[in-house]
Amino acid sequence: MIRTPLRYHRPRTPDEASALLVEHRGDVAVLGGGTQLLPQMNRDQVHVGHLVDLRGLGLRRIEVTDDQVVVEALVTYADVLLSRDLSRAAPHLRRVAHGVTGGRQIRNTGTLAGSACFAMPGSDMPAALVGIDAILRLHGPDGAREVRAADFYVDAFTTVLRPGEFVLAITIPRTAARTGYCKVKHSSGSWPIATATARRLDGSATVTLGSVHATPLHVDVSDLASNGPVDRAALADRVRSALPAPWTDVLAPGDYRARIAGVVAARAFSELEGVPA
Amino acid sequence: MTIQETPSPPSLPEEVEEVPGREITLTVNGRPRRVRIEDRQLLVEVVRGQLGLIGTKVGCYNGDCGACTLQVDGEIRKSCLVLAASADGAELTTIEGVGGPDGALDEIQQAFWDNDAFQCGFCLPGHLFATRDLLDADDDPSEQDVRDALVGNLCRCTGYVNLVKAALDAAQRRRTTGTADRRSIEEEGPRPADACTLHRGPRP
Ligand SMILES: Cc1cc2nc3c(=O)[nH]c(=O)nc-3n(C[C@H](O)[C@H](O)[C@H](O)COP(=O)(O)OP(=O)(O)OC[C@H]3O[C@@H](n4cnc5c(N)ncnc54)[C@H](O)[C@@H]3O)c2cc1C
Ligand code: FES
Ligand code: FES
């Protein structure tokens, strides 16, 4: 039972939503799927007097065009897994959504945008979005703006969202890039300890690590891939030196995360390159 | 001895603040219902409290155990993760709505019963709905498919072995009685069961 008084709002337009967020500034949260927010409110870790539900805005479409994929704010992991068009146009999102735990019930409820906004280091979506150059389409009291996922994360649990702003959609540019993903976790039902999105496009090679740092860690390794596969030993060194302050939480201490980060990065490239790790 | 005077009760503020609430409409196991709720109530609290359907359980209030599972507009959800106000207008099927009107067990329930798949039964909403969700999408799942589909539901009594056996047995029963739903198999593209897998990569 949420013990503090709470008022529920279901605005009909993005402007109305922003106006409510501004009016109740400091005492309000956006309700996406609710899988993070509601348990926190129930435990009294988050107490706000107002919730702004995005349900009245629709926002559950996946739109695939020739040059991009648009995933609206209320699209769930299950929506992603069931969309044939998205599977072709943005296979990496499907790959990542596939490994989200908690069962079909969670995948029917949790949204990609919610996970992106929660900005929890030990989760899949933030670093995966940074890794594929996603862009967040925001709506706020001053209208719309776009922010690259790479610029969205300020610190653990902190984004550049301003008062009154929320995510309307996530867009992913369609490219010929190839990607690979690797995630390390304690058991089938637990949260990630380290994730890596490997990506190659033309001459460039990058890896974006998640869960190992307060914010997603994007590392350019193009110079390590000049003749064929990415050099694994150099990759491990590069990743280690990019990680001076690894993330610590109840699942794993930072030094463990630092130790495995290079291996996780290598495995993501192995998936991409189709060679055994 | 001095007797202390009972302090007078604090005076109520001029305007007593009303607890934010509303009336919502739901279709519950096929019947239309109107319920008065508080805005802060979770769906599981309304289902158990106002609607009195206590087959839906609360184990963790954290999305982990699955005991609060029900169907909202055809999709299985953990009802501790749904705000009741947000479900206004929805169609719900709770565990009470799964069997026949006369209390007869459906094939999956009967398979669970025959295979000793449960002891206390607290986890049944999650396991029965997750099994049904899988079998509606895939009438011939492998053991790994079943295990993947049941992830997200915790059972503290059984150790899962008989749960998996029961789900496979239920699939077999559905195939023999011809109640298996073949729709999704004939359609091309990702199947609903693809959203259940966990350990192996996505199907090509
Ligand atoms: C049992 C369980 C297992 C899980 N397993 C995994 C896992 O394996 N990997 C993983 O990464 N995550 C996992 N999660 C977390 C899950 O991914 C996230 O809970 C989910 O995607 C968050 O989305 P939501 O829509 O439910 O967010 P909500 O709970 O609705 O919101 C989360 C936060 O973001 C804000 N917010 C939501 N939407 C917006 C928006 N559009 N604009 C601005 N702010 C917004 C909210 O105000 C809140 O602060 C798990 C959760 C549970 C309960
Ligand atoms: S009570 Fe809802 S998942 Fe445990
Ligand atoms: S039978 Fe008791 S929790 Fe599953």
SSE blueprint:
The complex is a heterodimer of chains A (277) and B (204).
Chain A: E1 7-9, H1 14-23, E2 28-31, H2 37-42, E3 50-53, E4 62-64, E5 68-72, H3 77-82, H4 84-89, H5 91-98, H6 103-107, H7 112-118, H8 125-131, E6 135-140, E7 143-148, H9 149-152, E8 153-155, E9 158-159, E10 166-173, E11 178-185, E12 192-201, E13 204-210, E14 217-220, H10 232-241, H11 254-273
Helix pairs in contact in A: 10-11
Chain B: E1 21-28, E2 31-38, H1 43-48, E3 69-72, E4 75-78, E5 91-93, H2 107-114, H3 124-137, H4 143-150, H5 161-177, H6 183-186
Parallel strand pairs in B: 1-5
Antiparallel strand pairs in B: 1-2, 3-4, 3-5
Helix pairs in contact in B: 2-5, 3-4, 4-5
The structure holds flavin-adenine dinucleotide and FE2/S2 (inorganic) cluster (2 copies).
Structure description:
The complex is a heterodimer of chains A (277) and B (204). Helix content of chain A is 32%, strand content 26%. Chain A has eleven helices and 14 strands. In chain A, strand 2, helix 2 and strand 3 (50-53) form a beta-alpha-beta unit. In chain A, the strands form four sheets. Chain A has a five-stranded antiparallel β-sheet. Chain A has a four-stranded antiparallel β-sheet with strand order 11-12-13-14. With 277 residues, chain A is of the alpha+beta class. Chain A has helices spanning 14-23, 37-42, 77-82, 84-89, 91-98, 103-107, 112-118, 125-131, 149-152, 232-241, 254-273; strands spanning 7-9, 28-31, 50-53, 62-64, 68-72, 135-140, 143-148, 153-155, 158-159, 166-173, 178-185, 192-201, 204-210, 217-220. Chain B has 204 residues and is an alpha+beta fold. Chain B has two domains: 22-97, Ubiquitin-like (UB roll) (Roll), CATH 3.10.20.30; 107-198, DNA polymerase, domain 1. Chain B has a five-stranded mixed β-sheet with strand order 2-1-5-3-4, covered by helices on one side. The longest helix of chain B is centred in the C-terminal third of the chain and has 17 residues, at 161-177. Chain A binds chain B through residues 1-2, 4-8, 10, 31, 33-35, 38-39, 42-43, 51, 53, 55, 77-78, 81-84, 87, 94-95, 98-99, 101-109, 188-189, and chain B through 17, 19-20, 22, 38-42, 45, 61-64, 66, 69, 75-78, 80-83, 85-86, 126, 129-130, 133, 149-153, 189-190, 192, 194-199, 201-202. Residues 29-37, 54, 73, 100-102, 106, 110-111, 113-115, 117-118, 123-125, 166-167, 191 of chain A line the site of flavin-adenine dinucleotide (FAD). Chain B: It holds the Pfam family Fer2. Chain B: Keywords: 2Fe-2S, Iron, Iron-sulfur, Metal-binding, Oxidoreductase. Chain B: Residues 180-191 have a biased composition (Basic and acidic residues). Chain B: Residues 1-20, 175-204 are annotated as: Disordered. Chain B: GO terms for molecular function: 2 iron, 2 sulfur cluster binding; metal ion binding; oxidoreductase activity.
